[in-house]
Amino acid sequence: MKLHTARLLICAALLIAAPVFAQGWKPERGIEILIGLTAGSSQDRTGRALQKVWQDASLLNVPVTVINRPGGGGQIAATVLTQRPGDAHYLHVISPTLVSRYITGLGTIQVSDLTPLALLGNQYLAAAVRPESSLKSARDLMERLKRDPHTFSIGINSAGGTLQIMAAMLIRNAGGDPRKARIPTFQGGELMTAGIGGHVDAIVTVASNILPHVESGKLNMLGVAAPKRLTGALAAVPTFREQGMDVIVSNWAGLVAPKGLSPQQIAFWDGLLAATVATPTWKAFIEQNQWEAEYLPSAAFLKHLQGEEKRLRAALTDLGLAKQ
Fold this sequence. Notes:
Shape: globular
Number of strands: 9
Structural class: alpha/beta
CATH class of the largest domain: Alpha Beta
Low-confidence stretches: 1-22
Order of helices and strands: HEHEHEHEEHEHHEHEEHHH
Number of domains: 2
CATH architecture of the largest domain: 3-Layer(aba) Sandwich
Largest sheet: 5 strands, mixed
Helix content: 40-55%
Strand order of the largest sheet: 2-1-3-9-4
Strand content: 5-15%
CATH superfamily of the largest domain: Bordetella uptake gene, domain 1
């Protein structure tokens, strides 16, 4: 029954998208999904979830390959797209880091250099420490930061992104200067190693990335930067807001393509992605990774990115980090 229902849902989604698919363009060769971070990262899992949906539901009749091109906070992968104008066979999973790194001068690629295709979902960040730490709550963290915000180290895995914004917000809430704070940057899985090994006092990253290490007893989560408690396995973790700290930071996932796509190419991806997010496999991925389900097609995602650019620019200017 479940399999039959799943097939019906996929068929329904494809029927809705059928006029779009029929407009003339379709992939002529394999699709490459470029990931700017290492294997196992949130962006990597997103790309592989798309690959699985498209293959399992037979939504594409060409091969789909996920290629990790880590480095430069995603700049290396994004640069590949700028070298393929008009080629809709190349896709790239992005986060707010692409926008914020440009604002802070750490990156050279901005939204106008790419073609936005879809907002795929939303995630919230969290802070975690080792179980041996004296910090047991976000209130403890704030008190520690108030005593001496500039010797306490908060590890992140991407400079100039939402992780740095959240770390800076925590320090600013405690009365410290984020520009003088200790916020070391680690690559991919090195962040978890640093947190678990005590190489930093705390780490900030996506809550779902921390969860497996909480369940294994290697980390304790102090709070999530969400407007309300999350669901599922994260429901027991209090928000920063309910602990007296007005810290809300989201880390959405989006999909972009090279600049210069034709209306027919964009329409194809709008139709395919609308069908994708309607599948049970994608919905299960959203639930398993503690995402907030939210989908925006290309035109709406472009407006979202323009709004994010204004919001992040204001936040980074306030923190003394904006340069562009």
